[in-house]
Write the structure tokens for this entry.
Amino acid sequence: MAVTMNDVARAAGVSLKTVSNVLNDYEFIRPATKQRVQDAIAELGYEANLTARSLRSGKTRMLGLVLSDLSAPYYAELASRLMKAAAQRGYRVLVEQSDAVGDAELNALQGPFRQLTDGLLFTPLVMDADAIAGRLGKKPLVMLGEHILDPRFDLVTMKNGEAAAALTSHLVAGGRRRIAVLGARADESAGSAGLRLNGYRSALDKAGIPFDPALVAPCEWRRDEGAAAVAGLLDRGIDFDAVFGLNDAIALGAMHELLIRGIKVPEQVAVAGFDDIDEARFASPSLTTVSPGMAEIAERSIALLIDRIEGRETAGEGVQVESGFQLQIRESAP
Amino acid sequence: MAVTMNDVARAAGVSLKTVSNVLNDYEFIRPATKQRVQDAIAELGYEANLTARSLRSGKTRMLGLVLSDLSAPYYAELASRLMKAAAQRGYRVLVEQSDAVGDAELNALQGPFRQLTDGLLFTPLVMDADAIAGRLGKKPLVMLGEHILDPRFDLVTMKNGEAAAALTSHLVAGGRRRIAVLGARADESAGSAGLRLNGYRSALDKAGIPFDPALVAPCEWRRDEGAAAVAGLLDRGIDFDAVFGLNDAIALGAMHELLIRGIKVPEQVAVAGFDDIDEARFASPSLTTVSPGMAEIAERSIALLIDRIEGRETAGEGVQVESGFQLQIRESAP
DNA sequence: CTGAAAGCGCTTACAG
DNA sequence: CTGAAAGCGCTTACAG
């Protein structure tokens, strides 16, 4: 049997409530009493039972993180940072993978997962704003790194459009005119893919370069899909002098396929990505990309969610946070 | 207020216990009763309170996963698979990052983290067998992908030594004689690093190639460290014709550094890694490595841990599982 | 097959 | 500042 608060109370000669007060940093405790309780805790090696605390208080001090796939490098790095930011504030992060399946997202939103957490960081890939708003419940939810700009939701994201435009302009400044875009999603205009695609188009507009839909290839945001997408363009005989992967994984997959086929990067085709995952620096050639300020995203989304949970943030409408970005110009598109 | 079992019992006209029986798939319930309860559950939208269940039963249906850093690609892929394997069996995985810090490992082993989980998958980098055995507690613990081969512990791992030897023999068969090893750890002879290093040495022995300690460079298992380690060898003027990174991240970092310096891979220096992370296939040149059967490791470690938790595995001594491996010969060391 | 009672270990009003 | 009581929502013996 584990040591309980009752044991501590008995050992210290006080009531249960007094022990509870000490544990919860209640202000008005006589120093001597407090000391006696703390001594008893130390002596008995008492540790609070978190489950009992949760049952009574209704709080778990866990945050839910819903994303499609933890093995994607961007999400892995993000999850790692989020966990550290949460730990500093006394919270843990419980991760749920949705595999970009709608049912899984729905489950994370209202199933048992929700019960286990005091609030959610949510990266929806399938559900739209109305579907989410309809299942919202009363626990706080912060949209993460995603697209749904809706006054009903808190959102921590980056300047997807601006950053994509800046990257595209950089490619144009390097003399590229036919820039293929990999990773667009047909069904999604407001999502990250859509926002980045819009940024690309606006940069082309600004440069007076006509938009060619033949240069836009949809694919999932993985290395193998990026490779397949660029292979498709080549096999269809489509001419291009640059590739913009809507994330780094796509770009790295595409770059691999180009090199395999003997196409020189960046001499014949420049390649650029998005996310600045660690891998981008060490690719050969190293990958030009956009750094989305992941540290800031992690820090601010955790802070916002916990502020909501603990009632410090009380804005009726959603709070929108946009982190800054930085171009990382490297060998693949100098 | 959420719907409780009491509400369901009242609606169905049965006692609490009967509702509990239905929820827990107790065999002997009259079908009509069961149906009435299930109808009431559906009608009221009842969902069991997991916290209350945990408090009473002492089970959380969560598994703890302790590793150094979730953003390392191997761990990210492994965690993703473990979560899926656990989910299939009705368990969740709660991840704790130790940053390879001893205190953090100790905390995960006996702090509140332990309370939240029914069992642990543990990848210790600092603590040794005796330290762990001393803090073991009564909840099951499975050593994961690591070195501690001790009859007191359950262990799921791979054939580190054999695989490293096979890879080294492959390099030797390709004509390499001076094979640098990156990622050795001075303090660790039994760990993964030590086992892989031993495999390397035994393969050299077999080939009649003398072991040269100057070719062994210690470093952390990250890309930047692999790059720095190979840079160190080059700057010290040490001659080598192959690099064996003790994991893929090291090898990829080293390969990047070689290419930056105009050294041709594999013509001048062959490069090989260990883990077969997705990134290895898409590197340029693609990376020769060892596939450790991660799917098998994930599946078997989850199965073993849950068998322990649920009392199906009752061996008094530790159960040792070694997954198979496969050489992945690619461009960096054909 | 089903019920009434006890209790897991805390926190939360409510008194004083 | 501190105490006695109630109760969070379940499961677990124990009866019958």
